Amino acid sequence: MNIHELPMIIFTVVAQMSIGAFWALGAIQVFGRYRKLTVSTIDRITDVGMYAVGPLLVAGFIAAFFHLNDPFHAIYTMNNLGSSWLSRELLAGVLFGGFGAAFAISQWFGWLTRGIREIIAILTAVAGLFLLIAMSGVYYSTSTIPAWNNVSVPLFFFESALLTGPLAVAVALLIVWTSNPLAKIRKQAKEPLNAELVAFLRASLRGLSVVATVAGIAIFVTYPIYLLALSHGGDAAEYVASEISTSFLLWRLLLLGIAVVIAGVFAFSKVQTANQPQKVLIVLIVLALVLALTSELMGRSIHYDGLWREGLNTWQTIAG
């Protein structure tokens, strides 16, 4: 594990998970409208997950600050928005966190009209897309680092968001189904979920499992393409390909494969027949999330292991 880059590993994976989770919650809202459910009914399913997205992003930012020599100088990284992807990444993070916090706070206290809150939610989702693009640009724009200057890098970032985000939301839905904490503090109705809402929740869980499974399979497909491109990309790229093709990568893919099978086969089929939150289903979904998250942290460690520049690094390697 690349301990030196651990703050950035945690930040990128957690931030992408929070973006994927917010998108998943938005998709559930749209799906609920399609099924003619009322807004308050859909909120009973999605609010717990929505309130968890903000703390996730904050945790990621706190981790990222440990990467800086002086966290109080972080604001200066926004000085070059016209030319620097790092500046744009920080701006996008602030926008995503700011819009998300405004939406969560107004939703909690019932401030503003529903229409205005939904506009803020859309702005949050767009800011999340901007953050993902900016995070990708930070690495893809470094033309002297072949492992990062590769189209697979943004693909990995988007796939990671769509793998971990939906699984995190699935866990939140199971919490709502099992024991809604918002009902306990009188923020939602205490009545148990009716048959219509349970059917909607199960359908949402199936959809989340499918999205996470497809994203996991996409990561499997992207890796050989990535390694093949590196192995034909010149001396530095070829060196990196050999350096990251280790047992650590195999373990990363093994954990990802198990997570995909659990989410796409066992959890999906269990949801089909579950009329109540069974312990087996809870264990399967939580296990899939833990394995997927662990696999992504390992994959991001491999990403930072690829920090090998053309030129000086390559010359040093050839010269021994």
Describe this structure in words.
It holds the Pfam family DmsC. It comes from Arcanobacterium phocisimile. Keywords: Membrane, Transmembrane, Transmembrane helix. This is Dimethyl sulfoxide reductase anchor subunit. InterPro entries: DmsC. This protein is an all-alpha fold and about 325 residues long. Helix content is about 80%, strand content about 0%. The protein has helices at about 5-35, 40-65, 85-110, 115-140, 150-180, 180-185, 195-230, 235-245, 245-275, 280-305, 310-320. Helix 1 (about 5-35) runs antiparallel to helix 4 (about 115-140), helix 4 runs antiparallel to helix 5 (about 150-180) and helix 9 (about 245-275) runs antiparallel to helix 10. The model has no long low-confidence stretch (mean pLDDT about 85).
Shape: globular
Number of strands: 0
Mean pLDDT score: 87
Distance between the termini: 25 Å
Topology pattern, helix = H, strand = E? HHHHHHHHHHH
Structural class category = mainly alpha
> Sheet bearing the most strands, described?
none
As a percent range, the share of helical residues equals over 70%
- Spans of at least 5 consecutive residues with low confidence: none
How many helical stretches?
11
Transmembrane segments: 6-28, 48-68, 90-112, 119-141, 153-177, 208-229, 249-268, 280-299
Keywords: Membrane, Transmembrane, Transmembrane helix
Pfam family, one: DmsC
Protein name: Dimethyl sulfoxide reductase anchor subunit
